[in-house]
Amino acid sequence: MNAFSNDPDVYRTLLESTRAIPWKIEWATMEFAYIGPQIEQVLGWRQDSWKTVGDWASRIHEEDRQKTVDFCVAQSMQGADHEADYRALTADGEMVWIRDVVHVVRNPDGSPQALVGFMFDISERKKAEDKILQLQKELEALSYQDALTMVANRRMFDTILEMEWTKARVTAQPLSLVLLDIDFFKAYNDRHGHPQGDACLRQVARVLDASASRTRDLCARLGGEEFALLLPATGVLAAQEVARRCRKLLAQAAIPHGGSAVSEWVSCSMGVGTVVPGVHDNVRAFIETVDRRLYEAKHGGRDRIVGGPA
């Protein structure tokens, strides 16, 4: 065992037979004392082209270079072992994700004497991590989307409403809300069937989404046949105009409704409210006010709009 452990050729053979890339840098000169031949297979740069720390730094992607160098230098000066992930440039201009695992060899006084470590090609791992991250983002997006109509769901509505309420209070701008119900929707389902009812909800959602045409406008399905339009920076008259446009577009869609008592086509009842939130105003109270107006529209004959300043 002693002969084996003292044979440098054995160690070199072991190091150079792994997929990890061993290396050593002398701290005083910032020059490579050694780097494994595996570097040519992974990055394409000749083994003898790794002379100094500058060669290493120049072969890091420019977007990762400064932060990686600064981090590694700071950790090394403190004598702290560390790891760094970065994108390395290959000799033919491609890119490989590298993980550098660094050990600091220190002098008796604690100052750095040398850095030794291993480079690992983690490109496949990064691809898998990026795929998982993308799936997580897609799942998060789905969690804010109504699965049937593909507009925002109640969760998204509550989140955006809180944000827009705060923004409107800070900027002293008006915030408008339209709450609406499809008239006699239960009778629609009873007459036409639930699959056709789902199709109706999708059609109505498309109409409403088209009505909320600005980037910050939000169309959401709150549940069942109830929808909401959140209209930031929208005054009383403009909110009323949006509600009328919804009613007009829905009439133009001419979705047959054999169970309605007010129209042969699908119609809706709307409550509209506008407020410039003050420090003492409450967002839930605002919603309740608009909801009462929706109730008035429904019980006042349906297929109508009730609204104004909240």
Compile the SSE list and pairings.
Elements lengths: L1 H4 L2 H9 L4 E6 L4 E5 L2 H6 L9 H6 L3 H16 L4 E8 L5 E12 L5 E10 L1 H21 L10 H18 L3 E8 L2 H8 L1 H18 L6 E6 L2 E7 L3 H18 L14 E8 L7 H17 L5 E5 L1
Parallel strand pairs: 9-10
Antiparallel strand pairs: 1-2, 1-5, 3-4, 4-5, 6-8, 6-9, 7-8
Helix pairs in contact: 8-9, 9-10
Organism: Massilia aerilata
Keywords: Nucleotidyltransferase, Transferase
EC number: 2.7.7.65
Overview of the molecule:
The chain has 310 residues and is α+β, with helices and mostly antiparallel strands. The protein has two domains: 126 residues, 2-Layer Sandwich (Beta-Lactamase), CATH 3.30.450.20; 166 residues, Reverse transcriptase/Diguanylate cyclase domain (Alpha-Beta Plaits, 2-Layer Sandwich). The chain is built from eleven helices and ten strands. The protein has a five-stranded antiparallel β-sheet, sandwiched between helices. Strands 7-8-6-9-10 form a five-stranded mixed β-sheet, sandwiched between helices. A hairpin with a 5-residue loop joins strand 3 and strand 4. The longest helix has 21 residues. The mean pLDDT is 90.
Key words describing this protein structure:
5-stranded mixed sheet; 2 domains; alpha+beta; elongated; 310 residues; Diguanylate_Cyclase; 10 strands; nucleotidyltransferase; Beta-Lactamase; single chain; Alpha-Beta Plaits; 5-stranded antiparallel sheet
